[in-house]
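Bug #77: duplicate submission created two jobs. Keeping one. Sequence:
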Amino acid sequence: PLEMSAKKPVPFLRQVVSVRKKVHRDPRFDDLSGEYNPEIFMKTYSFLDSVKKQEKEMVQKQLKKCRNVEQKEKLQQLLNRMTQQEQAQKKQQQIRERELALKRQQRELAKQGKKPFFLKKSEKRKLELAEKYAELKKSGKLESFLSKKRKRNAIKDKRRLPSQKDL
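Kept job's structure:
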């Protein structure tokens, strides 16, 4: 811009060039980006699963070769995080499949002329627990799971009881 004296009065009708302000938009909340559909998202980015698998194998190889203790700990933490993410993704997928199966069932009943019946959250939880129980029984880890649960509950009960000092 042209340098002007501060002592000179500003002309009454000066020309101002208006600059357009950039409008930043967040794709998470904007309608232009479309709606989030987990099924479509999973299909679109399914190739990432193979990439993650390769990365996990690479980290495992590095972990076997590594001699540095600090580096080994970091790699172990990374590997644990990767496996936890993988497990969480599988769990989410199972939940999604279960919900889709229930929806299909309700559609079939609606086609037959029956009223749709939607499960409550507590009933969904019961079904999930029953499924987990069956899975543990099949894998043979049911006894250890139940014993751990009993121990946890016993500790909770012990904590809730009033201590001898209070009496």
